Amino acid sequence: MIKLTRLNGSVYVLNSGLIETVEATPDTIITTVDGRKYVCKESVDEVIRKVIEFEGSIRLYADAQKIEGA
């Protein structure tokens, strides 16, 4: 899940695994696999960075769990 900001300043959390496309029009529009569209203040690059950080944190957690269970 990634935290994003609506144009009005409110914050929402989006399941990053459902993202299909991210485009700048100039606002950043995220389209999910079910066709829903979300607009956010973050740039395309920021959204990509947030997804990479989130996915990386999942892998780190999984790796730590493997070490503890060994």
In short:
The chain is of the alpha+beta class and 70 residues long. The chain contains one helix and five strands, in the order E-E-E-E-E-H.
List keywords for this structure.
alpha+beta, OB fold (Dihydrolipoamide Acetyltransferase, E2P), two-stranded antiparallel sheet
Whole-number radius of gyration?
14 Å
CATH topology: OB fold (Dihydrolipoamide Acetyltransferase, E2P)
Class based on secondary structure composition and strand pairing: alpha+beta
Helix content: 25-40%
The pLDDT mean sits at 92
Uncertain ranges: none
Q: Any idea what the CATH architecture is?
A: Beta Barrel
Tell me the number of helical segments per DSSP (H or I, 4 or more residues long). 1
Please indicate the percent range of residues in DSSP E strands (runs of 2 or more): 25-35%
- Give the end-to-end Cα distance, rounded to a whole number of Å: 28 Å
Order of helices and strands: EEEEEH
- Give the overall silhouette: elongated
Main β-sheet description: 3 strands, antiparallel
Strand adjacency order, main sheet = 3-4-5
Per CATH, the class reads: Mainly Beta
DSSP strand count: 5
Number of domain modules = 1
